[in-house]
Amino acid sequence: MKDLNITISKNIAALRRASKMTQAELAERLDYSDKAVSKWERGEGVPDVHTLVAIAELFETTLDYIVSDHTSDNTPAPTSMKRKTHIVITLLSVLCVWFIALVSFVSLQMHGVISGAWLAFVAAVPTSLTVMLVFNSIWGRMSKSFPIMSLLVWSLLALIFFLLPYSNAWMVFLLGIPLQIGVILWYVLILPVRKRKQENNVINN
Q: Where do the domains of the chain lie?
């Protein structure tokens, strides 16, 4: 059993490094703590079967690969293309948002709306951030969402500021203070809870 633990630990570490992923990032994707991943890679414990299957799916390999010794045959660890695919999909989606903003700007200019046409680009900023936030949550990288959520809050307030016709419209930015505090509390207090819940699921030798 100890040899199997060492084999699994080496393979998990090799797969993670081949995908250029940190222990914290892998822990986030699996909904575990980075301490649990570190424990696996040291061979002091192994994930349960469901987690091993999830690791195999994440790195686009098989369960057999993870539990087999590859020292003799020098089998290269498969590299996951998922991260690159996710980045490309996100960038294309953001590009679509800005293309729509450009079409809106040109259309408004052609219809004689000169003064407020530029707001199409201002609106594209929070829209792009929302798209990024959605994809980030779908692909399980919520800890990376903190800067996106912060920028989203302030860009939405900026859009409201430009839309309001009042001289004291700048006061809308005061709303950003409690909203930003809420984002910080979400990141510091709420997000780590699900990682701590899973830490006790590690199987010890």
A: 2-80, 83-195
Distance of alpha carbon 172 from alpha carbon 59, whole angstroms: 45
- State how far the Cα of 84 lies from the Cα of 201, in Å rounded to an integer: 30
Residue 60 has, within 13 A of its CA and on its CB side, a CA count of 8
> What architecture does CATH give domain 2-80?
Orthogonal Bundle (1.10)
pLDDT tens string, the chain, 205 residues long: the values are 567 888 888 889 888 888 778 888 888 888 888 888 999 888 888 888 888 888 888 887 888 888 888 766 555 555 555 667 888 999 999 999 999 999 999 998 888 877 888 999 999 999 999 999 998 887 766 667 889 999 999 999 999 999 998 889 999 999 999 999 999 888 777 666 555 544 444 444 3
The overall pTM is greater than 0.85: no
Chain-centre distance of CA 164, in angstroms? 33
The DSSP H or E segment spanning 203 is: strand 203-204
